[in-house]
Amino acid sequence: MARDSCLARVTAGVAVGGAVGGAVGAVYGTYEAIRYKVPGLLKIRYIGQTTLGSAAVFGLFLGAGSLIHCGKSY
């Protein structure tokens, strides 16, 4: 039974974190853009910034968690 390499686990963690963070950021950014009545095309910019920021943070933390967990064997 071959174990995945640490790099593969961290990469998968970053990818999953980015996907989850992007989805949450898009929903939250849309909600806030509507709630605070952001005008016109600035809504798209605001939603994009929220989506990318959230994806980056989630990906960073899930990747770091995967890196920390990588050294442990059970």
Automatic annotation (TrEMBL):
<dbReference type="GO" id="GO:0030150">
    <property type="term" value="P:protein import into mitochondrial matrix"/>
</dbReference>
<keyword id="KW-1133">Transmembrane helix</keyword>
<dbReference type="Pfam" id="PF10247">
    <property type="entry name" value="Romo1"/>
</dbReference>
<dbReference type="InterPro" id="IPR018450">
    <property type="entry name" value="Romo1/Mgr2"/>
</dbReference>
<dbReference type="GO" id="GO:0045039">
    <property type="term" value="P:protein insertion into mitochondrial inner membrane"/>
</dbReference>
<keyword id="KW-0472">Membrane</keyword>
<comment type="similarity">
    <text>Belongs to the MGR2 family.</text>
</comment>
<feature type="transmembrane region" description="Helical">
    <location>
        <begin position="12"/>
        <end position="31"/>
    </location>
</feature>
<dbReference type="GO" id="GO:0005744">
    <property type="term" value="C:TIM23 mitochondrial import inner membrane translocase complex"/>
</dbReference>
<keyword id="KW-0812">Transmembrane</keyword>
<feature type="transmembrane region" description="Helical">
    <location>
        <begin position="51"/>
        <end position="70"/>
    </location>
</feature>
<protein>
    <recommendedName>
        <fullName>Reactive oxygen species modulator 1</fullName>
    </recommendedName>
</protein>
